[in-house]
Amino acid sequence: MRLLLRIHTLLVLVFLYLPIAVIVVLSFNQSRFGVQWRGFTTAWYEKLFHNPRIALYAENTLVVALVSTLIATVLGTLLALGLYRYRFRGKGLLRFLLYVPVVIPDIVMGVALLLFFAWIREATGFFRLSLLTIILGHVTYQLAYVALVVRSRLASLDPALEEAAADLGAGGFATFRYVTFPLIWPGVLAGALLAFSLSLDDFVITFFTAGPGSTTLPLYIFGSVKRGVTPEIHALSSILIAASMAGVLLGRALLRRR
Amino acid sequence: MKRAIPLLLLVLWGLAWARGELRLFNWADYIPEEVVAEFERRYQARVIIDTFEAPEAMLAKLAAGGDAEYDVVVPPDYYVLEMARAGLIRKLDHTKLKNLKNLAPEFQNPQYDPGNRHSIPYLWGTTGIAYDREAVKKPVDSWAVFFDPEAYAGPCFLLDEMRETIGAALKYLGYSLNDTNPDHLNEAKELLIGAKKRCLGFAGGIEARSRLLAGDATVVHAYSGDIVQIQEEAPQVKYLVPKEGGTIWTDAVAIPKRAPHPELAYAFLDFILEPKIAAKIANYNAYATPVATAMPYLDPELKANPAIFPPEEVRKKLEYIRDIGDAIRLYDRIWTEVKAR
User: How far apart are CA B295 and CA B279, in angstroms?
Assistant: First the structure.
């Protein structure tokens, strides 16, 4: 039984990680077109780092990820706090709505955003598709993830601590500043890192909300598929994979900390 | 100090404007970095490149207001007239393109854009057959390898492109690949259904190429450029235009109607018509250049490769895929039937 379980686990891991491993291996392959191994090289990474066009796409990707994560973390944390601390009408509904961006298909969200921005543009002349619209698009789903992570952290919080702070004369803000936030910050940071890695490799929502001059790395990778994926693209993908994995691992490590 | 920051930003912004910016909407990895850098140096401008993965996506973006965002776009030949009719690209002012005379005569007045009124050609190529010389069972020189069971030469793939693939069957039958006669199209349909059963199926150009390289397929319907690129690594792979003829395609370069920097866009068009620049673009992509004066600067192997520059008698049998109007519905129906069988 035990053996079967091990084999099963192994198969699942192979299924999940083999395609990624193939990409990483191919990024070190000398052959430009085939899948045959022709020897080890880091030339594709060097080429990548010397390409100013790709540097611009990387810059776009990072700007979007950083700004959207910042916005989503602040708003998501406030949302989680509000849900934790207060009772109000429609709280159940709000809690339910929080899950919607998580489960809704990205493509529906993307198309909805595209139409929404087009509609606002018609009415006001603002919201031309650009980095800004991508950032807003990313915030829509990142917000929910951050709120969910922070909420789970809040759930493990002892309410007596906040009560004690109030007893000792701390106001709402002081309580948050000196008691609640120091206790939940690993959760906040974990949520932020999750949001960051989600933004870093988002394709679908970015595709629909991107305008001229706002090509991101995932968009560029997609664009190259039809003309043949070169090892340069594999190298780029490997870096993206490493970056988002690092984000998730860091987040998990922080969440585990007591 | 704090007050200086907005001022500084304003100055930087002003400088950015003064330097100029060219926004190019192109296929991914279709222009060598060296060429872009040289343009940036010479015109003191910054080039921003956005990429598309399918012409449909490019058209959609342009129609959704992108015609006021981009300075230069690279549509396939068959979209040029459609885009001009839709008012998405402008009529070119030939007085600003002094290098237009560098084009080979057949590209001075191409079928898809008579008189180069709305576009200039960028690169061209053909659609034909690629095969593994060491693995084929029979000689390959005709579309028959797909359509005649007698000529079957090994596991094959057809292109997953409606016009190309129905076009190949029409060519094999001796018709034009823009034929709209329902009887002719029905004959083509029957051929395609038969070919589909014998072959491994339909695939995109790059996928078919990978399968050919991996040895799963020995004969594939392919674009010239895709195959020529790999010949250095895989010399056993050959490409030819079948004796019945094939498709010629051109990627064109056009200026959107409301381009924000039209002067720079004209400069760019004229720039890529320069012999040395055009040669660099062709060498990088391993496609044929329409710029006749670029020939001396091409890599000798490129110039000598019949897969890139087919001999005169083959070139006479090449046809552009043309807009066939409402008859496209007939094609759609046949394509659906073929795919469903």
Answer: 7
Task: Provide the CA B282 distance to its chain's centre, in angstroms.
Answer: 12
The model carries a pTM of 0.79
Question: What residues of B are in contact with residue A52 (Cβ under 8 Å)?
Answer: 33, 37
Residues of B in contact with A113 (CB under 8 A): none
DSSP codes joined into one string, B304-318 = H-TTTS--HHHHTT-
Number of H helices, E strands in chain B: 15, 9
pLDDT digits (tens, 9 = 90+) for B12-34: 444 444 568 999 999 988 999 99
Using a CB–CB cutoff of 8 Å, tell me whether B68 touches chain A: no
Q: Burial, B284: exposed, middle or buried (Cβ in 10 Å; 0-12, 13-18, 19+)?
A: middle
Contact in structure between A69 and A199 (CB atoms under 8 Å) = yes
Q: HEC string of A189-209? A: HHHHHHHHHHHHCCCHHHHHH
Tell me: pLDDT of A125 over 80: no
Residue B318's Cβ-side half-sphere holds a number of Cα atoms within 13 Å equal to: 23
Read off the tokens for B263.
């002067």
For residue range B105-129, list pLDDT tens digits in order.
989 999 899 999 999 999 999 999 9
Which CA distances in Å does B228 have to A27, A33, B28, B221, B280? 22, 11, 18, 14, 16
Question: All domains of chain B, ordered by start, with CATH?
Answer: 15-119+254-273 (3.40.190.10), 125-248+315-340 (3.40.190.10)
What is d(CA B253, CA A71) in angstroms, rounded to the nearest whole number?
Answer: 40
Tell me the pLDDT tens digit for each residue of A2-30: 899 999 999 999 999 999 998 899 899 88
The shortest C-alpha distance from A125 to chain B (Å) reads: 12
Structural tokens at position B129: 């057959």
Interacting residues of B279 by C-beta distance below 8 A, sequence separation 6+: B289, B291, B294, B295, B296, B297, B298
Element (H, E) at A221: helix A217-225
CB contact under 8 A, B230 and A34: yes
Contact residues for A203 (Cβ-Cβ < 8 A; gap 6+)? A218, A219, A222
Tell me which H or E stretch contains B280: helix B275-285
